[in-house]
Amino acid sequence: MATPTTAARFEDLLSVRAAIGRGGPAPGGQAGRKPGYEFGSGRPDPASFPYDGLVVATARMMAAEGADALTYGDPQGYVGLRELIARKHGRFEGLAIGPEDLLIINGSSHGISLVIGAFVDPGDPVICEAPTFSGTLNTLRRHGAELHGVPLDAEGLPPAAVRERLEALRAQGRPCKLLYLMPNFHNPAGPTLPLARRRELLAVAREYNVPILEDDAYGELRFEGEALPSLYALDEDGIVTRSGTLSKILGAGVRLGWLLAPRDLLPIFQSFNFGGGVSPFTSRVVTYYLRDHLEEHVARLVEVYRAKRDAMLAGLDEVLADTDGEISRPAGGFFIWLRLPSGTDRAKLARLAAESGAGSVPGTSFFPNGGGEGYIRLAFSYESPERCHEGARALAGAIYRSID
Ligand SMILES: Cc1ncc(COP(=O)(O)O)c(C=O)c1O
Questions:
Q1: pLDDT, tens digit, for every residue of 232-272?
Q2: pTM for this model (two decimals)
Q3: What φ, ψ does residue 194 adopt, rounded to 5°?
Q4: Cα(336)–Cα(43) distance, rounded to whole angstroms?
Q5: Is the CB of 257 within 6 Å of ligand 1?
Q6: Using a 6 Å cutoff on CB, does residue 107 contact ligand 1?
Q7: Pick the CATH number of 68-291 from 3.30.1330.60, 2.170.16.10, 3.30.70.100, 3.40.640.10
Q8: Binding site membership of 216 for ligand 1 (Cβ less than 6 Å)
Q9: Is the C-beta atom of 191 inside 6 A of ligand 1?
């Protein structure tokens, strides 16, 4: 439906760019907020957002299909976006899927909530990693799940410990209703699950008849090494649902993600959704942008976030190398997990860390059944590499001075 006014509309949209600016608002959006190092929440880098590209994509999309974008959409999500996400799995992982294998969701937290809603009733046992993503913990708690955290080791979730827990639950006549895990660049702890463990976990879940929710929010942001097949790709029995998101590879504000699941499960998840399809308008904008830019944009983000990770690690190492603290070295994602040196006076650290201006999240936020007092999580995603280095040194100094 191109019209003579299209060019004028396009110009108007481009002028919006100047109003948006490049940096976006400060975290929390509060004017006059004390400047500090935003290492707390995993916010994507605002300098990496493709402002111009999205403006252009919006204009192109409106000219091509504006009326369709502004009405109710397909309950499974805009087919153009599902085709694009299917193509992404082919290009990035060699995984052949089609648009019919995907449900578009309002960010992966929404999809996680749909899956939990489908499988978990109040009081049902659920196994998750300890530590695990705090957002999912909140959702599981809201659904009344009985949480069974299985401690991670350096390689992630140990299948033998999961089997032990499943056996104990079976002995009580209480089957586990869901196994939730993050095989890639775990948030917060960092490890990536080796291939053998992926296979073993699938075998254990199959044996105990437990559905798996595989959260892959950061899978595309791999800084080094080869991608491993996902649990979904290895699954031959239709027990794995995998969640993905555009939050980390485009912008969390688009609120779009996907569930990749066995075809018989998708209508069940979809039935927990309110009608109208998720964001038909935004789905089209991002599709028009990513059709031309996906690979190149993600490749740029990998460079951006790798530099930030390295800068933060350098800042921490420079100060803490001669302590017995442990600093994770994730091969991708947004986070560093730090075990505080023994003898750290945590009250003193809280005071000195506040003076340093560096935020962090206490380890206790990530544990389903208590624990984590000796840990903190740092996000390197938001600040520039220079500020990651400077802020990490400042925080590491606070930690060092807090050792008794
Ligand atoms: C591991 C993990 N899963 C899921 C999410 C949810 O992201 P979104 O709802 O923006 O897709 C996050 C966000 O930080 C995350 O870290």
A1: 999 999 999 999 999 999 999 999 999 999 999 999 999 88
A2: 0.91
A3: -65, 160
A4: 14
A5: yes
A6: yes
A7: 3.40.640.10
A8: no
A9: no
